[in-house]
């Protein structure tokens, strides 16, 4: 299904939603909005114990969500729209993992999660109350995760032991899986994000330990070819589609790239800041109008600023909506709308301890 550019209502893919626009200005230079923006306030912040930060999040149903931590490998759950959190799993104690990288709800309604050091794929059949290890690929980290429309599961790897840019691929919910190199020649990098394009096509975003790259598969993840490279990008963080256009966000340079031909060629769409981090994006509706909200971190100078950006015109222009916090490093990486008027935003990165913020739209 396509999303017309003249409509704000849109299909939200796993890594967010934006609308392209010609020569879009930087967030701080956005033109005035025709209508007042909704007000927003922080109603709670929860910092997981220890030297940890919030790396991943997923909405389960209205007011119910999970977050995963980095450094401690824990999973927490809220059932009161982000006002309180309780730990459901201590991943460090259970499996000696350091990070919970990403979550996914599959078409069979089961939950999956990727992890770091060691790399595993976790599965839950009880809404995140308990988890089981279903795969242990030979790598330091499992990162991006996606389910294709035929049920095939793809998981990106970091520091794969075959020394190549690699994923694992399963057709049976990780009862078994294949280890697949995206390139037989290029040295290994991080497969950070994946997206299903339908009809057995998929994209993989690659970065870290080298330039940002995009690979495409036309056979449900068996064979891949490189379709894009972004030398200045530290990593590629997320894909999303609007209408006939595909987009990918690049960290380090806070830039969005666009493809008009299903990921076969790429060009720069817009740069938010010269140095910064772009996270996930969600659509919110308020007072009969639709808005897009993007979590981001302005890293042009210290301290860095974790913020939410908002667009009232489908992503053509952005303005700063609320500042969450300031820190010496890190990024605001994950964002979820957990009911009609509540957002949760996870912050931090590696040594920068960061909480999850609960925000109420008024």
Which structural class best describes the helix and strand composition? mainly beta
- Nearest-integer average pLDDT: 87
Tally of DSSP β-strands: 28
Number of helices: 1
Q: Return the CATH class.
A: Mainly Beta
In CATH terms, what is the architecture? 7 Propeller
How would you write the strand order of the largest sheet?
A: 1-28-27-26
What is the global morphology?
globular
Question: What is the terminal separation in angstroms?
Answer: 31 Å
CATH homologous superfamily name?
A: YVTN repeat-like/Quinoprotein amine dehydrogenase
Number of domains: 1
Helix content: under 10%
**Percent strand:** over 45%
CATH overall fold name: Methylamine Dehydrogenase, Chain H
Q: How do the SSEs run, as a string of H and E?
A: EEEEEHEEEEEEEEEEEEEEEEEEEEEEE
Structure explained in plain terms:
With 362 residues, this protein is mainly beta. The protein has one domain (27-361): YVTN repeat-like/Quinoprotein amine dehydrogenase (Methylamine Dehydrogenase, Chain H, 7 Propeller), CATH 2.130.10.10. It is built from one helix and 28 strands. The chain has one helix at residues 91-95, and strands at residues 40-46, 53-61, 64-70, 74-78, 86-90, 99-105, 111-116, 121-124, 132-135, 141-147, 153-158, 166-170, 178-181, 190-198, 201-207, 212-217, 225-230, 235-242, 245-251, 255-259, 267-271, 276-286, 289-298, 304-311, 319-327, 332-339, 342-347, 356-361. The strands form seven sheets. Strands 1-28-27-26 form a four-stranded antiparallel beta sheet, with no helix packed on it. A four-stranded antiparallel beta sheet has the order 2-3-4-5. The protein has a four-stranded antiparallel beta sheet with strand order 6-7-8-9, with no helix packed on it. The longest helix has 5 residues, at 91-95. It is globular, with a radius of gyration of 19 Å. The two termini are 31 Å apart. Residues 1-31 have low confidence and may be disordered.
